Amino acid sequence: MTQTPVAPVSAGPFGDSAPAPTGAAATQADSPLPRRSRSRLQAYVALTKPRIIELLLVTTLPAMVLAAGGLPHWRVVLATMVGGALAAGSANALNCYVDRDIDAVMRRTGHRPLAQHDVSATGALVFGLVIGVIAVLLMGLATNWLAAGLSALAIAFYVVVYTMLLKRRTAQNIVWGGAAGCMPVLIGWAAVNDSLGWAPLVLFGIVFFWTPPHFWALAIRYREDYSRAGVPMLPVVASPVRVAREIVVYAWLTVATSLVLWPLATGWVYGVLALLSGAVLLAGAHRLLHVTTHGENAKPMQLFHLSNSYLAFVFVAIAVDTFVR
Fold this sequence. Notes:
With 325 residues, the chain is mainly α. The protein is built from 15 helices and no strands.
């Protein structure tokens, strides 16, 4: 296996000791990115990474619909969506706080509020903690304490396990750390039923296996960014062919898991749509492997955007199937 050396990182609990880039990398990293004009409010909103929150909520509502066998009570939906958005925003803001050193080094993240000094580190930390507490309390008081506990667990897992423990230490970071992004389906289910079961665990599995190919496609595109920051994402430490092969493996696991839901909790509408969308995802993953193996110009962002559409489509299919049945 061909490996690319990554600068060692000896990070403290808040990630303040990433290595300073040298040579050409230092020149690029030290060149300030054009400053974005944003208000203080916009800066704090940007800390929550709204586009990521949107995708998380896309998986939450269909899980709630499946749990209820139809549309849940609007108060439960509203509390769960608002609480879920605040919980995800808290995790993302705290992630920005912990990763502020490498965000300033990476071109992809150099526009984030802390990298641009639009907000203070202390302000970001307090903001992340406060909205996290509000999220958990809202979820507990408006739905139930199982959903609230899962929300707190999701925040802690993303910040502590993924960001602080795994991200800078292992190429398997996104595999296990990505479990935090699977929590919204459990939270949504628990908010409706105050319990869990096999169906929400399968939903969890779909998102769990989907995460590595989705994120590795992005990491291929920004491989130099991660290498410069000393983050051992798989595309940094492994050969392109190995990365493409693992993407294919996880794509197959994603589709296989999605089909388990068919006999367990859904009907033929979901089954057909899951098969069709799964075939498209697998075609995209195998196409990336083919061009990578033959040394052709790979376009990983095509798979990245395709995977976004796939996940949204599968969860919309869950909701549609539930209403049809």
